[in-house]
């Protein structure tokens, strides 16, 4: 009886670990592989509800991939196998990246995150937080220096300083808001080649 209890405990721990044959978006914390900061900090392309069903969890009480945990991915995220360890399959991975990257913990493989940070950045990219990626104070610097930390790889350094410009594109044509748009909504309003106004209203 004791043997069965021990076996059950260790079986659960083994199932929860990241498959050692598939380690993208994972880092070693000194004792085990866990998900990196960029493993699940993007949005799914398909709806979360679809991804939840299409990539069902290995067990009902299993967690989803998140920074710092070692939850087992749905096998369909990366393999045609039926049990871990399982060999990675490029087609399975491509579909997961294109449809449900957050659910599968493969955000780092999307084009938004798959680039190199500047060799000599103005800020230590390893210390960049989600709050910094959303901050108007930091967004332009991070887009230029640490794009892979914030999912800015596709933006070529041109970014909206204010989050949400894309939700109201009519702001691009609103009289009296030209300076605001040219400073804060450059990407949404196609103003990447327009020099932002100088602080204080100078030109």
TrEMBL record:
Every ShKT domain range: 114-154, 157-193
Swiss-Prot/TrEMBL keywords: Signal
Pfam families given in the database record: ShK
Source organism superkingdom: Eukaryota
Signal peptide start-end: 1-16
Keyword Signal among UniProt keywords: yes
The name this protein goes by in its record: ShKT domain-containing protein
Source organism of the structure: Caenorhabditis remanei (Caenorhabditis vulgaris)
Taxonomic path: Eukaryota, Metazoa, Ecdysozoa, Nematoda, Chromadorea
């Amino acid at each position: 009886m004791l043997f069965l209890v021990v076996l059950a405990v260790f079986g659960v721990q083994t199932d929860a670990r990241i498959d050692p044959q598939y380690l993208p978006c994972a880092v070693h914390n000194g004792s085990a592989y866990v998900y990196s900061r960029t493993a699940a900090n993007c949005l799914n392309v398909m709806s979360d509800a679809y991804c939840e069903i299409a990539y069902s969890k290995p067990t009902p009480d299993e967690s989803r991939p998140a920074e710092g945990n070692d939850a087992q991915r749905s096998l369909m995220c990366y393999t045609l196998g039926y049990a871990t360890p399982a060999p990675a399959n490029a087609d399975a991975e491509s579909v997961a990246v294109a449809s449900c990257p957050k659910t599968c913990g493969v955000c780092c493989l999307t084009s938004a995150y798959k680039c190199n940070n500047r060799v000599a950045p103005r800020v230590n990219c390893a210390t960049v937080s989600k709050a910094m990626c959303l901050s108007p104070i930091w967004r332009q610097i991070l887009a230029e220096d640490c794009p892979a930390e914030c999912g800015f790889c596709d933006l070529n350094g041109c970014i909206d300083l204010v989050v949400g410009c894309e939700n109201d594109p009519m702001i691009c044509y609103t009289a009296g808001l030209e300076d605001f748009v040219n400073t804060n909504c450059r990407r949404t309003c196609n103003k990447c080649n327009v020099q932002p106004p100088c602080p204080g209203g100078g030109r």
